[in-house]
Model the fold of this input.
Amino acid sequence: MVDYVFGPVRADDTKQIVDLVRSSFDESRAPFLAYAQPGMAAHLAVAVTHPAATPDRVLVSARAVGDDRLLGFADFRVLGDGVGFLSYVAVDESARGEGIATALISEFLAARPHIVTMKLDVFRDNEPARRLYARLGYEHESTSAWATRPVPSGGSEPQVAGLPNALAAYSAYGFCELAVATASTSATVGLLGPSILNARSLTAFLDDDLLAGVATMFPDLSTVFVSVPEAALTEITVHYRLEGLSDRMSLAVPGRTPRGSAS
Ligand SMILES: CC(C)(COP(=O)(O)OP(=O)(O)OC[C@H]1O[C@@H](n2cnc3c(N)ncnc32)[C@H](O)[C@@H]1OP(=O)(O)O)[C@@H](O)C(=O)NCCC(=O)NCCS
Done:
């Protein structure tokens, strides 16, 4: 039985983390995930090197004792009101089923006794992860649908606030946010790799002018993506493709009393 050691993620772990994430996902989903973009290694390195800049973000690593190779990692957020969020967890295939993911979550919670609720999102078809969360006591809270449509054409270039900084981030990391304004509306959308435009809201997903306008600036964009509450899909009249369902799950951390509850 191998013993594992858990600790902070180091700047030189970040390339291994991105490789681990890419190999842990179905290739068809990678274009939609900032975590699967090669530039994520540089993005994570900034978070690891300057932890004070993002105090709410916690990255935990797992290694076998005496072996420097990263075998697992988890990326958490500390939200307000005693809520923690598991943004991502991945374990190397060679080390799965040995309790590493369970221990990464326990490490995070043990160091933060004020966290009374944990939340996370998991794809409906991710059986191993769903089994893990069910065993830990997580319960279904809501469902989001991932939908895509082709980028519409024929737009004119919109205003983009802070464009030089956004372009610099895009070229360094491969993803960024754009605060876009057209004659009729404004929205923040995301660029994800060369081909995906993340609409971020149903309104933007349905706004042909806005989407086509952004596409004039980034001609390699081909697909618009959105994640919305499942029920919102009934409002969509454009031709879209359902890419998958994702469930928000939450856990009342055992033995901890939620704020405001009588003890
Ligand atoms: C989901 C994932 C992170 C789980 O990691 P893991 O380290 O294998 O998880 P654990 O070992 O803690 O738990 C997995 C199983 O091993 C079992 N297990 C835990 N400790 C064990 C031990 N010491 N010996 C034997 N089995 C053990 C658990 O009971 C659990 O069984 P279950 O599948 O019936 O729940 C891993 O499969 C993975 O990286 N998948 C790809 C990335 C991914 O999908 N991430 C989740 C995104 S939401």
In short: The first strand starts at residue 4 and ends at 8. The two ends are 40 Å apart (CA to CA). The chain is about 25% helix and 35% strand. The chain has two domains: 4-115, 146-244.
